[in-house]
Amino acid sequence: MSLPPLASGPGGPDALRPLLDTVLDALAAGAARRGGPLPAGGPDGVAARVADALGDVLPDTGDPDALHTLVQALAEGAADPADPLCAAHLHCPPLAVATAADLAASALNPSLDSWDQSPAASALEAAVARTLARTAGLADALVTTGGTESNQLALLLAREAHGGTVQLVCGAGAHHSLARAAWLLGLPEPVVVPTPHGTLDPATLHEALTALPGPLLVAATAGTTDAGLIDPLPEIAGLCTAHGARLHIDAAYGGGLLFSDRHRDRLAGLEAAHTVTLDLHKLGWQPVAAGLLAVARPHELAALRQRADYLNADDDTEAGLPDLLGRSLRTTRRPDILKIAVTLKTLGRSGLGALVDQVCARAREFASLVQDHPGLELHARPVISTVLFRPADADDATVAVVRRRLLQEGRAVLGRARADGRLWLKATFLNPHARPDDLAHLLKLVEGSTPA
Fold first, then answer.
1. How far is CA 360 from the centre of its chain?
2. In this structure, what DSSP letter does residue 86 have?
3. Domains plus CATH for the chain?
4. Among the residues of 55-201, which ranges form H helices?
5. What one-character DSSP code corresponds to residue 222?
6. pTM, 2 dp
7. Which of 38, 202, 211, 260 would be 410's cystine partner, CB 3.0–4.6 Å?
8. What is the pLDDT of residues 372-413, one digit of tens each?
9. Could you tell me which residues are beta bridge partners of residue 247?
């Protein structure tokens, strides 16, 4: 029996070429069978189609058509973020050039747990991560799987910087991963400051910081998950300085505004943070995963140092081989930095900024359409690219039914968010190719799914 070919090595490219054609054909066939942003039939229908395509998971004899069959099934049953009617979450359509770069990373399969497994990838990661950190006004950055890992790292560094404990203070709209990180790290229960208008109020935060014993870590947000709101960062930074508190800013969503000349001023104050979460699989159009944690004080990363003789022996490090174990909580890591580096160099800051400007403009256009529609209610004008709206005079149960009906029929993918004590439909615009008529069509679908 002949052995299956490998993706890398001398024969790798020739082995991959026909398989790429198979994958691309299967993606196209699956998308055609889906026929919209989401498969119709809900969870039961999707599960049945997947089970039919999968059959025997581990057959005695392999199926040479498995690649086409399963890729087609996955595409048919996917929520397609490149469809303009798929606008529920911070789930972006990835750029073609970034996806192509990700193929190279998979084929070469370097692992960033030691230099001898990833010579070029480790050098690339160091240079690109540092550049992105400096774009945010900080000094260095670690590559992560996304906002959750970045927030956990930020709390870990704060804990270690303060001798083993720190009190987290955050707003009610802070990402759930912060509270989870405090629990995982054995920190006190977070102090949650009420945010009646969706963002941290400096006066209320001042009262909380005055009443609490230290050490304190304030977590501000630049782009809340529910509504895309940005806390008043300069004022919060000033309060942290006055109270001797450490500042972390979760800019997983809003960090992409840094690329835009038009919108980057909304992130004024970011440079005052000790740590900043960035996430380029949101406003960066990267395939998952593409997160970073930027740090102002690189020496604090010493808290992450570990020693394993087979990965970073002292004599190897002294001889000049880079030590990578202190660059992550993970050991085996794929080179997610490659797709980021390719995107930055291909598009440049102005190219990425144009994409940011485009989706922000689409959100404003959509908000105007909602505002002018007699049967719909707008929550507020968008700050980034998220719009909350609902059928006028509908109760929360009706709003929930409208969303689920669209999902069940596979016609549109909208999120849900609770604000001002009511449930809202959430449209998050991350597709720069969305057109004005797509926005109007989305509203017609909502209108048509609303009970009379």
1. 17
2. B
3. 12-78 (no CATH), 99-346 (3.40.640.10), 348-449 (3.90.1150.10)
4. 66-76, 96-108, 119-135, 147-161, 176-184
5. B
6. 0.97
7. 38
8. 999 999 999 999 999 999 999 999 999 999 999 999 999 999
9. 218
